Amino acid sequence: MSLPLTACAPPHPYAGTPLWPASTQPLRTGDLAVGGVSLAELADRFGTPSYVIDEGEVRERARAWRTALPDADIAYAGKAFLSRAMIRWVEEEGLSLDVCSAGELELAALSGFPAERIVLHGNAKSPADLRDALRLGVGRIVIDSTGEIASLAAQMPPGARQRVLLRVVPGIAAGAHSAVRTGVEGQKFGLPIAGGEAEDAVARILGQPRLELVGLHCHLGSQIAGLGPYVTAVRKLVALLAELRDRHGVTFPELDLGGGFAIAYREGDPVLDPALYATRVTGELALQCARFGLPVPRLTVEPGRWIAGPAGVALYRVLAVKSTGGRTFVAVDGGMSDNPRPALYGVRYTVRLVGRASTAPARSATVVGRHCEAGDVLAEDVPLPGDIRPGDVLAVPAAGAYQVSMASAYNLVGRPPVVAVSEGRARLLVRRETLEDLRSRDVGE
Ligand SMILES: Cc1ncc(COP(=O)(O)O)c(C=O)c1O
Ligand SMILES: N[C@@H](CCCC[NH3+])C(=O)O
């Protein structure tokens, strides 16, 4: 068995299947450098598990969307990964920001992100979410249910008017796992077009003078590699826009098609190319609007994973190696507490030894976490050097999205730090959660 040769791919044009940041370079020691910094050195300096995020890769990926869709609003979906630095990078790259809680909103405000460029989402916005959104003056609030319409209008300060979008369900099944398919009826988000619920909500919003309906929103799901679902969404949403114009005499300046753009976790995984998306989706939008005699609304897209995911690398140290039941298990010092995705969606990752060169023949191994569940598996039957041993450092690419942001303190293992790398320098963005942090929350007896 041979080791994967993909670790040191040349700079990529955001097509194909890039697994590692474009800055990744092999070092003679068997190590890899990302953003000009050795991963093994980062593991020693910041401990493990640790998350490394390549600032240049984030910026390039933000620019790839800006370049593909120069006239559109690109709103980074902060749920993928958020920190003050990340907020600053996307702000400097000219993106808007999609948030879905008072926590994400407060961090954006603290970082000085322009409130006007913030979009607030949520199927169950708390009073604190809405209070903060109105106090800070967010640009748009996405209404997700009928009950929210009157309650939001009632909370508006006298004389104020809030721009809102309505999240609709087009009835399109897309996405890598049933838990993340949000374009279909029968799940909790949005209001279905079929059956007239979306149209009824539009009529109600139009009846609220304190709400300004600027357009429709839909988000189909996650890890969508094909363009077909987005093209179908355009057709369905523009048909609804035509119906709304005919029945209510209104046209809207915006259309938000959400995110969900696929990245590669393993060699050969299909990825979504922003340039192809732009051509197909804007082409279809122009065509459909012309067909119905509608003005072409300004497009918003909400990439999260596509921007943050491939910019991140997770570092773990091997704690134990065990051969049992005909399999070799390599257990690392993190797992489902810093990355619940394998347990939630059955996702499997790519893993590579860094920090030393090994000439041992590769053997198949299953890389598992340290948590108290047999489902705590990061990678299954992957080739790793046969002499892998405790103390070795393993690196996992495509780790920048929905890992740190979904991390928990399961088994009271503290959440990992996040370290930014750029031009040969590393700096801590988010510190490790210490045992003292965890103990200090326990205030009763
Ligand atoms: C409303 C909305 N927009 C954007 C996103 C970002 O999705 P992704 O990170 O898959 O691009 C999500 C999460 O799936 C979402 O719920
Ligand atoms: N958290 C998911 C996707 C859902 C994103 C939020 N709508 C993932 O890790 O893939």
Bound molecules: pyridoxal-5'-phosphate, lysine
> Any guess at the CATH architecture of the largest domain?
Alpha-Beta Barrel
Q: What is the beta-strand fraction?
A: 15-25%
Q: Provide the gyration radius in Å.
A: 23 Å
Mean pLDDT: 94
Number of domains: 2
Keywords: Amino-acid biosynthesis, Decarboxylase, Lyase, Lysine biosynthesis, Pyridoxal phosphate
Subunit structure: Homodimer.
Pathway: Amino-acid biosynthesis; L-lysine biosynthesis via DAP pathway; L-lysine from DL-2,6-diaminopimelate: step 1/1
Catalytic activity: meso-2,6-diaminopimelate + H(+) = L-lysine + CO2
Question: What does the model show?
Answer:
The structure is a single chain. The protein is an alpha/beta fold. It folds into two domains: about 5-55 and about 310-440, Lyase, Ornithine Decarboxylase, Chain A, domain 1 (Beta Barrel); about 55-310, TIM Barrel, CATH 3.20.20.10. Helix content is about 30%, strand content about 25%. It has twelve helices and 21 strands. It has helices at about 40-45, 55-70, 85-90, 100-110, 125-135, 145-155, 195-205, 230-250, 275-290, 305-310, 340-345, 435-440, and strands spanning about 25, 30-35, 35-40, 50-55, 75, 95-100, 120, 140-145, 160-170, 190, 210-215, 255, 300, 310-325, 325-330, 350-355, 360-370, 375-385, 395, 420, 425-430. Strands 4, 14, 15, 16, 17, 18, 19, 20 and 21 form a nine-stranded mixed beta sheet that branches. The protein has an eight-stranded parallel beta barrel with strand order 5-6-7-8-9-11-12-13, surrounded by five helices. Strands 1-2-3 form a three-stranded antiparallel beta sheet. A hairpin with a 2-residue loop joins strand 14 and strand 15 (about 325-330). Helix 2 packs parallel to helix 9 and helix 4 (about 100-110) packs parallel to helix 5. The chain starts with about 25 loop residues before the first strand and ends in a 5-residue tail after the last helix. About 45% of the residues are buried. The model is unreliable at about 1-15 (pLDDT under 50). The chain binds pyridoxal-5'-phosphate and lysine. The site of lysine has 5 residues, from loops. Lysine binds next to loops.
